[in-house]
Structures are given as C-alpha cells and as structure tokens.
Specification:
homodimer; Glutathione S-transferase Yfyf (Class Pi), Chain A, domain 2; 8 helices; 8% strand; Glutaredoxin; alpha+beta; four-stranded mixed β-sheet; 2 domains
Amino acid sequence: MIKLYFSPGACSTASYLALEEAGADYSVERVNFAANQQQSPEYKAINPKARVPAMVTDRGVLTETPAILAFIAQSYPKAKLAPLDDAYAFAQMQAFNSYLCSTVHVAHAHKGRGTRWADDPAAIAEMKRKVPESVGACFDLIEKGFDGPWAMGGSFTVADPYLFTLSGWMEGDGLDLSRYPKVMDHRRRMQERPAVQKVMAAIAGS
Amino acid sequence: MIKLYFSPGACSTASYLALEEAGADYSVERVNFAANQQQSPEYKAINPKARVPAMVTDRGVLTETPAILAFIAQSYPKAKLAPLDDAYAFAQMQAFNSYLCSTVHVAHAHKGRGTRWADDPAAIAEMKRKVPESVGACFDLIEKGFDGPWAMGGSFTVADPYLFTLSGWMEGDGLDLSRYPKVMDHRRRMQERPAVQKVMAAIAGS
C-alpha cells in the first residue's frame, strides 16, 4: 500500500489530493517541520533530500511532485487523471507541472527558504522582498494561458491539485488576487470537489 | 517535423542530445542569447517564457526539459530511452529529471540569473558566492545515489543527456571535480557516444 509523507501547507498537498482523486488505497504520515523532523536520520533514510513529498510504494520510495503525480495518473488509469494515450497532451501536462515545480515553487521558496541560496541576512531579506513580483510574474503567465475550466482545458488532471496547492500560497506571497480571476475561479471549482474537501479537512486536523 | 530552439551551453542541450539519440527527424535553430533574442516578440510568440528549450511539434510547442525528454522517449519507443512499460521505473527517471530541473539547475542559475530573485547587486553577488556550496550539495547527493553505468542504472535513458548537460556546468560553478568520480565517469562515457560527439560538434559550430 502507498504511504505519503506530507507536511501541512507544503507542496505535498498536491500528491495527497491526487491520491484521493485517484481512489487509491493509501495512508499518510505527517512530517513535523516545526520540529525539523525532515532532517532526522529516520526521515532522511526515507528521503535523503530531507523534503516532502516522499511516497513509499511496494517498489520503493518516489520523490518530486511532477514524478509522483504522473505515477499516480498512470497507476490508476480508471480515474483518468492524465491524457495517458496521447504523448503530446501528456507532455503539455508535464510541462505545466514542471513549470509549477521549477519556476513557481522556486520563486515562492525565496520567501521562506532563502538560506538555500544565500547566507547573508540582507540578501535573504532582499530575496523575500522580491517574492510578490517574481511569483506574480509566474501567475501572470498562468492566468494569461488559462483556458479552463481546468488547468489543461476541458479535462481534470493531476495538474489541477498541483495548481490548487501552489495558488493557495498567493495571499501569503503578497499577490493581488484580483489580477487573477481565472486562477481564483479554478480555486473555487477545486474547493467544491468532495476529494478536496476531505483532504483539506484531514490536513487541517493533522 | 520537430524543430528545437536551443542556445549553446544552455539546458536545451539535453533535448538536442535526446532527439539525436532517438534517431528523430528534426531541425534546430539557435536562439542568440547575446543579442537577447529570447526576449524578442518573435521568440516570445513561440515561447512566452522567453527561455530555451522550446520544441515545435506538429501539434504545437512544448517547453520544459523534463516534459520534452519524456515526450521524446514516448514518441520514439524503439530507441528505448525510458522504461515506458514500468510506471514505477518511469517515475524514478522523472524524479531524477525533476531534481535536475528544479533543484540542480535552479542552484546553478543563482550564479548568472540572480536578477530573477533579487534586484540589489549585493544580494545578487551573495547568491553567486554560494553557488559552489549549493550546487556542490546537489552533486554530492547525485554522486552518492549513482549506481551506474547510467543515471538510472543499467539502461541508458533521457536522464543521461540531462545529467551530462548539467554536469558540464560543474567547473564553471567552482566545484572540485575530484569529489565526483562517478559523475565524471558518466561524463566520459557520454562523450564516447557518437550521438553526443555529433551534437556537441554541431553546437560548438553553431
């Protein structure tokens, strides 16, 4: 059975939501970031990167949200969470997920994880200052390219839980939400889904 | 026919190499970064992100290296560039590519692209200073997890051109190459491949 290691508010929410949407048989375990549990020897034995998500499968541990999301879609094909029979459409979905991972999440991370790329407190403060602008530019691009109702158009895919997870950081990143009506509409549509309500309640109570 | 937009030395080399390894029918066009051509209206009509790679297909434009690499592997299955019939092994390959994209490349980008995340010159200089440490930590993890002879073990995959491309930045990032014997061995093995020799010569002459 699948076991997902997650932290409330982290990008692991995307994988959590995808597992629920897939109808997967899975369990979850919270990694306590406040206690720095992700750096414990026990957790680093599971994920040497000391981050979430990490997903334990019968075959071994998977990391990296885009890889986990595609794996969930491929492992539960009846849930139709990706265009599995169309390499081009699948690649478009992967490109969207890769952009969220390597550009949007990274821009956001300069707010709270600046020590990854600098030690000087002044530099870390300067990175933090620019987050509304850099994350804002990412969501400008997403908003402009959004056809809806879902991230990839007419069909719900694993890109939707991922977008929903990262768009949940927009207020905290100081963005003016009124600039992003399509992204906000997507958020509302996601919040109406039973799987999303179930998982968000479980995370809030974890 | 496929057309790849690339820039010498950029991460687009990974896609260029994968197309050649796949035996694809493709053409390439150099984007002149020195002339800031990636910001031209003509190029931004192809890729609004103003970056390389961008790959034009019969269906439309694909961006993001991990997505392009998986697409190439799926589109040319006879070349056996990914474990297409094993979702878990495919996910491990994707996790490796995602790590290269969102962590290794991002750490490297703080050397020359610091303006993405800060405006203050002192902060940009501080980011640059930390690159040997942050990129070094990434390659420590890759070196430790490397079973070889290829990135994913016994079989050559699209992860190999990607690793080869990013490991080519190690000297410029100030890393002590002697700390990474497995990654260096991988580099030498890649350089022996005819497809690699052909593409690297074409890029050098572009």
